[in-house]
Amino acid sequence: MSAHFEELGWQQTAMGEISLRRRFDPTARTDVYEVKLGDEYLMSSLFTVAERELARLGLARTPGADLDVVVGGLGLGYTAREALADTRIRTLTVVEYSAAVIDWHNRELLPATAGLATDKRITLVCADFFAAAAGTTGFDPESPGRTYDAILLDIDHSPQHVLHHPHAPFYTEDGLRALSAHLAPHGTFALWSDDAPDDQFLATLETVFTDVEAEQVAFDNPLTKGRSTNTIYLATRS
């Protein structure tokens, strides 16, 4: 196997085969860690600005101390790591569908986020975030009805471009209202999207939450030598 490419792990899931690979990118002149679902790219260590901004922006509008926070989707770990940089975090529950992804972090295959799984504040939960959000038990089966100060979500490409069709109902008024029941009063919901701000989804958010906004995050793209953008949706439970 070439030193310029290595498949570090993979697992078959209901959504397809998920895999982690490392490759040397000659344009960026660095090792790049990528997650793929089948032939579709999910995330890359080249593009982590918006994933980190998801945590920073979401927690910046979250009041209080001793925060209990949920992250939907572990991935390469950048959102969780940024959340843990907030000294107010008491507990961070990361809900990840794939046991393989959790295993990558337990084995510390990702140098940039090594040590994440051993932080005493974090709990890595192998579960379906969307099923948990829709249910009454919530994200902590041992404490049904537990609420959180913030929920930060980065799983689908966007509300209109989901990875798995059962996720789609989450982005409706009913789905978001079910999620809001797991937030404490004045708690924050923040969502990463690969698409430009969607007026229709913003209107749906406003039926459930207050102080709704979509903030575009720009970052350098070493592949195109230009600038790219992602969107962070922010909303507060009244």
Element string (H = helix, E = strand) = EEEEHEHEHEHEHEHEE
Distance between the termini: 55 Å
Q: Tell me the name of the CATH class.
A: Alpha Beta
User: What spatial form do the alpha-carbon principal axes imply?
Assistant: globular
Strand content: 35-45%
Return residue spans where pLDDT drops below 50 for at least 5 consecutive residues.
none
Spatial arrangement of strands, main beta sheet: 7-6-5-8-9-11-10
The helix count comes to 6
Instruction: Tell me the number of strands.
Output: 11
CATH superfamily assignment?
Answer: Vaccinia Virus protein VP39
The overall average pLDDT, rounded, is: 92
**Class from helix and strand fractions:** alpha/beta
CATH topology, which one? Answer: Rossmann fold
Q: What's the number of structural domains?
A: 1
* CATH architecture type: 3-Layer(aba) Sandwich
> How many whole angstroms does the radius of gyration measure?
17 Å
Largest sheet properties = 7 strands, mixed
Helix content: 10-25%
